[in-house]
């Protein structure tokens, strides 16, 4: 089955907004065995949208349209879809009531222009949006089935998984169930991960269990995609491979599936009855920003100190140990993390870097490590925050804090 993804909006056509929705939709479709043949971006122009819909209808079997379902005058997807189908727009009383009730639960009166979101092409199949006011729908234009989704990422992603993909699989006659297992690692690149996983039976780019990688520095996502007849078949196929991947990637795995490194840290601190204070330099508070918004952080995160000033004598492992020890005593936290950075001098450039000093203090004493990262200011800043969090993860899990990572330089 040939699928096209058609994204709408002047903001993504002109580059004012980075179109992350397309990447997410395309990845999810490929993961479940659907082929994406075309990707189209169209601005908020009625004639251009109509042409794009008709062209897609002539070449694709299914089209996912993303965007243009809002309440404003530049949201044109419903109107143009109706024109392409040759039918009028009609009011969905069901969706209008849903929106009205949604506003009422929040103690608000629905604006009049939101009624536009309940106007759908006559005969359209409603696609539920459980977390927003944009009503998804499906219609047939020419020989293709069109699925309309909102541009808000969290709404689109949920609708895609719960509503659109099951319909696409049924339309394409694809049976069975799928599973995507994800491992998030820090400290290894794609080439090394590929080497570490070589030779696992049944695991390959084109094997029964498909192996894929997605790098988003500072982490690498290793993905295992599998299809089975039912849930038991999925477990039978995936369980031994999953266990072997976990074993081979070892200490570099920081989280799995929808978990995050920082989420795992907060959970570990809560479970252990610990508290944490953090001191960081030159990161802009990136470590505190990743920890503090999480559920449970209010129970464990006692203090975050952010500064561009280094201790007297400059940054070193010894200085990081002193900062961590002092911070633990002053804040009363059970654990203190200090991340100091000695930046290179001069303008930002590819070989610009910094020497990083990380220390962790707890009731048993202190541990520390040193690393050098290069790649420009932003690269170093992001990598430093990840390194500090990873060192704390390793320490809490009784893993070696000073294990060398691929991103280090001599």
What features would you describe in this structure?
It is a single chain. The protein folds into three domains: 170 residues, Molybdenum Cofactor Biosythetic Enzyme, Chain A (3-Layer(aba) Sandwich); 80 residues, Alpha-Beta Plaits (2-Layer Sandwich); 135 residues, Alpha-Beta Complex (Maf protein). Helices cover 37% and strands 29% of the residues. The chain is built from 13 helices and 18 strands. The strands form four sheets. It has a six-stranded mixed β-sheet with strand order 2-1-3-8-7-6, with helices on both faces. Helix 2 packs parallel to helix 6, helix 3 packs across helix 4 and helix 9 packs parallel to helix 13. The radius of gyration is 25 Å and the shape is globular. The two termini are 51 Å apart.
Strand content: 25-35%
**What is the radius of gyration computed over CA atoms, rounded to a whole number of angstroms?**
25 Å
Which residues form runs of ≥5 with pLDDT under 50? none
CATH class of the largest domain: Alpha Beta
Instruction: Output mean pLDDT.
Output: 94
Briefly note the structural class of the backbone.
Answer: alpha/beta
Query: What do we call the CATH homologous superfamily of the largest domain?
Result: MoaB/Mog-like domain
Helix content: 25-40%
CATH fold field value of the largest domain: Molybdenum Cofactor Biosythetic Enzyme, Chain A
Number of individual domains: 3
The coarse silhouette is: globular
Distance between the first and last residues' Cα: 51 Å
Task: Summarize the biggest pleated sheet.
Answer: 6 strands, mixed
Total count of strands: 18
Helix count from the secondary structure assignment: 13
CATH architecture of the largest domain: 3-Layer(aba) Sandwich
Spatial sequence of strands, sheet with the most strands? 2-1-3-8-7-6
């Amino acid at each position: 089955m040939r699928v096209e993804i058609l994204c709408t909006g002047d903001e993504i056509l002109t580059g004012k907004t980075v179109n992350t929705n397309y990447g997410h939709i395309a990845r999810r479709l490929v993961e479940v065995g659907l082929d994406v043949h075309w990707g189209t971006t169209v601005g908020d122009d009625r004639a251009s949208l109509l042409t794009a819909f008709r062209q897609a209808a002539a070449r694709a079997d299914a089209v996912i349209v993303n965007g243009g379902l809002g309440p404003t005058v530049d949201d044109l997807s419903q109107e143009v879809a109706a024109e392409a189908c040759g039918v009028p727009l009609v009011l969905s009383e069901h969706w209008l009531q849903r929106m009205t009730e949604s506003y009422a639960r929040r103690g608000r009166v629905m604006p009049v222009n939101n009624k536009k979101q309940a106007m759908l092409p006559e005969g359209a199949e409603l696609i539920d949006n459980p977390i927003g006011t944009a009503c998804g729908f499906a219609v047939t234009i020419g020989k293709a089935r069109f699925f309309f989704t909102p541009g808000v990422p969290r709404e689109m992603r949920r609708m895609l998984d719960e509503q659109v993909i099951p319909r696409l699989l049924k339309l394409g006659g694809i049976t069975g169930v799928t599973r995507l297992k994800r491992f998030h690692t820090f400290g290894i690149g794609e080439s090394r991960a590929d080497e570490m996983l070589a030779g696992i039976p049944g695991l390959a780019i084109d094997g029964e269990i498909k192996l894929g990688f997605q790098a988003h520095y500072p982490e690498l996502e290793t993905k295992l995609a599998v299809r089975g007849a039912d849930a038991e078949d999925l477990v039978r196929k995936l369980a031994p491979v999953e266990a072997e991947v976990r074993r081979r990637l070892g200490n570099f795995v920081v989280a799995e599936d929808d978990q995050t490194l920082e989420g795992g840290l907060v959970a570990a601190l809560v479970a252990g009855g610990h508290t944490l204070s953090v001191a960081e330099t030159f990161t802009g508070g990136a470590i505190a920003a990743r920890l503090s918004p999480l559920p449970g952080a209010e129970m464990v995160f006692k203090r975050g100190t952010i500064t561009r000033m280094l201790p007297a004598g400059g940054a070193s492992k010894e200085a990081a140990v002193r900062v961590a020890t002092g911070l633990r005593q002053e804040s009363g936290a059970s654990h203190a993390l200090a991340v100091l950075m000695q930046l290179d001098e001069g303008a930002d450039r590819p070989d610009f870097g910094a020497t990083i000093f990380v220390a962790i203090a707890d009731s048993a004493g202190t541990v520390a490590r040193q690393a050098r990262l290069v790649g420009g200011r932003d690269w170093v800043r992001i990598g430093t925050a990840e390194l500090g969090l990873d060192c704390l993860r390793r320490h809490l899990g009784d893993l070696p804090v000073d294990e060398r990572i691929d991103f280090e330089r001599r």
